[in-house]
Amino acid sequence: MPAAAAVAAFLADRAAAGVRQSTLGRRVAAGVRQSTLGRRVAAIAYTHDLAGMALPAAAKLVLAVLGGARRVKGAKPAQKAPATAERVPNARRHA
Length: 95
Known about the structure:
The protein is mainly α.
């Protein structure tokens, strides 16, 4: 499945950490967050689904790249403070 290999290579490139040269010669930060990778995979899957093509996002190679990026980047969701009785009236007042 060549589409899966292309998607996996694209995701691996986007997830790469460090600094790279842009096409204009400027230094830009490389690597995107897990949420961005997930959105891109969803967009690719949606486009393939609309075209009636096989979904490369479900391929083992793509899933392995996403899992590796998750392990390397250590994407852990931020824990939010609970909505206690003291906080709820304040939040409503600022809305």
